[in-house]
Structures are given as C-alpha cells and as structure tokens.
Amino acid sequence: MLEVVVGALVRDGRVLLAHRRPDKRAYPNVWDLPGGVMEAGESELDALTRELDEELGVRIVRDSASHLCRLSAGPSEEPALLSAWLVRDWDGTPVNVAPEEHVDIGWFTVAELPPPGHPLLREAMLDAMRSHRD
After folding, report:
1. SS3 (DSSP) at 83
2. CB within 8 A of 77, min separation 6: which ones?
3. Strands 65-73 and 35-37
4. Nearest Cα residue to 108 out of 132, 86, 126, 124
5. What is the pLDDT of residue 41?
6. Taking CA atoms, which of 16, 20, 56, 83 is between 20 and 30 Å from 95?
C-alpha cells in the first residue's frame, strides 16, 4: 500500500492548496493539500519536509507540525494510506516549484474552501483553519 503525506500550511485563517494537474492519475484537476508519496525508510515528518520543499520551495519548522488525520484514500484496487499534517510555521514563500504536479497554488479561507480530493479531509482542514488563526 502506498503511503502518502500531505500538509496543511495555515496562516491568517487561510490554508494553502495546490491545484492538481488534469493529467494526474489520482484526484486529477482538484484543489488539494500539497504532498506526496513517502520514500522507503522515511518518517511521515521527514517525507512531509521533503515534499513541501520539492513542491513549494519551503522548509517547514518541524516543531510547528502536528498530525491532523490518517485515512485510506484512492480506488479500492489501489488504496493509499493518507496522513495529513497541520503546519503552522515555515521558512520561505510558497511558490509552485512543481508544475509537473500542480497547475497552480492558492490560499483559501473557510468560506472559499473548494472540496478536497478526499472528502473526509475537509473536516480536518476546517478544524485546523478555525483553531489556528494567527
């Protein structure tokens, strides 16, 4: 089973989402939390740190990250274990440095939040946004 880690960068009551490319196999053409597949031997936090650097050009402050939820995602014939993390602090300004993964990135308030790729992730994101306003 694939293990995937994603991060909710939250600041000022807004969360950063990435718009997945329409040619992606899993959850194409949707706004979702950035992240990716864990590599062999990586902890979730190590993978999250690597993925957010590769996709957004930011270095998370690891002490600011806390676990949001873990759930099964993807098609039943090829499920993935998805682990979502709240990230309250990072170094650098997020930019889309992985255009092969995402067509855009954007900040969203609770009222603007589009449906995530996995519907069970929505409540975790909303809770994180409401409880961690700067």
Report:
1. strand
2. none
3. unpaired
4. 126
5. 95
6. 83
**CB-count burial class (<10 Å; 0-12, 13-18, 19+) for 88:** middle
pLDDT per position as a tens digit, 2-50? 899 999 999 988 999 999 999 987 778 889 999 999 999 999 999 999 9
Nearest to 113 by CA among 26, 11, 15: 15
Per DSSP, 62 falls in state G
Q: Which amino acid makes up residue 46?
A: D
Mean of all residue pLDDT scores within the chain: 88
Token pair recorded at residue 125: 């994101």
CA dist., res. 27 & res. 78, Å (int): 13
